[in-house]
């Protein structure tokens, strides 16, 4: 159906009057009447009934009115989405970060970005690295920040180095390892570590490093939250390999003790990832440029 004819029909339905509709639309009354008749012929149904000077919708007319409203609502949504692509000062950015980046790095970055672009809606999720990759690949996100080596990420993604993390071994005060000068990789394998779930960047790097030494990780306990892991260790449940960023306060207060690792240097990369073929809004491009001021905005 002709969209302009549907607009005329909606105005007639709204005002329930041919003459008033023609005046608001700056059309002649015969032109409005002809458009309604044309729609009826196209639908093979009567859409309106005259009751004196008023126009009343038939059941078919009400059905058409409902769908026409939905169509023009979608048209407005489309116009708004296209405007957001043109306008750097509005729109929405969908971003996900692993727990370390999302909790300990992003807040200060977001605060500075918001001071420059207060009208931009930031939709931020905290997920493990594998979930972020999955959501990037299925078009759900604009960007992601994940932990792990860039060489281990899907080749179909654009990957840009963001910063480097450091993983350390922590125990509670009084733990038997507190008297050790260093702990070897072999001592981490069997039922001593409280660890993150499979798919997290920390867990993946730890398992790869142990596997290189023919050691299989057998966790004492698996949790999905860094804060829960810290509390388990503080309570004396076990030891943990965690991001240094997540335990600075506990190390300073003495609630946790760092034990050096003898033959492992765990420094995973935090990488900024996106689909190379995803069309980004101007706001999303501005966020990228905010993080990497000397880089070209991604396509």
Automatic annotation (TrEMBL):
Span of domain HTH lysR-type: 1-58
An example molecular function term from Gene Ontology annotations: transcription cis-regulatory region binding
Keywords from the named record: DNA-binding, Transcription, Transcription regulation
Superkingdom, taxonomy of origin: Bacteria
Keyword DNA-binding: yes
Pfam families per UniProt: HTH_1, LysR_substrate
Matches recorded under InterPro entries: LysR_HTH_N, LysR_subst-bd, WH-like_DNA-bd_sf, WH_DNA-bd_sf
Keyword Transcription regulation: yes
Family: Belongs to the LysR transcriptional regulatory family.
Name this polypeptide is given: LysR family transcriptional regulator
């Amino acid at each position: 159906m002709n969209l302009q004819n549907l607009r005329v029909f909606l105005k007639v339905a709204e005002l329930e009057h041919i003459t008033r509709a023609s005046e608001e639309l700056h059309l002649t009354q015969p032109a409005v009447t002809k458009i309604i008749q044309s729609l009826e012929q196209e639908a093979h149904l009567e859409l309106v009934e005259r009751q004196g000077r008023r126009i009343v919708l038939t059941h078919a007319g009400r059905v058409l009115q409902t769908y026409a409203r939905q169509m023009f609502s979608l048209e407005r949504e489309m116009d708004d989405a296209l405007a957001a692509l043109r306008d750097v000062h509005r729109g929405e950015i969908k971003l996900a970060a692993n727990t370390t980046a999302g909790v300990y790095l992003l807040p200060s970055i977001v605060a500075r970005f918001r001071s420059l672009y207060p009208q931009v809606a930031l939709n931020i999720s905290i997920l493990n690295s594998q979930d972020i990759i999955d959501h990037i690949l299925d078009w759900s996100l604009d960007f992601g920040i994940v932990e792990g080596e860039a060489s281990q990420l899907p080749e179909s993604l654009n990957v840009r180095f963001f910063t480097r993390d450091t993983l350390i071994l922590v125990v509670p005060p009084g733990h038997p390892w507190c008297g050790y000068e260093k702990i070897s990789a072999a001592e981490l394998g069997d039922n001593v570590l409280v660890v993150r779930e499979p798919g997290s960047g920390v867990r993946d790097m730890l398992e790869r490093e142990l596997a290189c030494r023919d050691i299989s990780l057998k966790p004492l306990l698996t949790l999905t939250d860094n804060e829960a892991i810290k509390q388990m260790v503080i309570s004396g449940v076990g030891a943990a390999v965690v991001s240094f960023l997540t335990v600075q306060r506990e190390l300073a207060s003495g609630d946790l003790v760092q034990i050096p690792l003898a033959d492992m240097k765990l420094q995973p990369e935090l990488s900024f990832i996106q689909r190379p073929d995803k069309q980004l809004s101007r706001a999303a491009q501005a966020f990228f440029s905010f993080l990497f001021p000397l880089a070209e905005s991604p396509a």
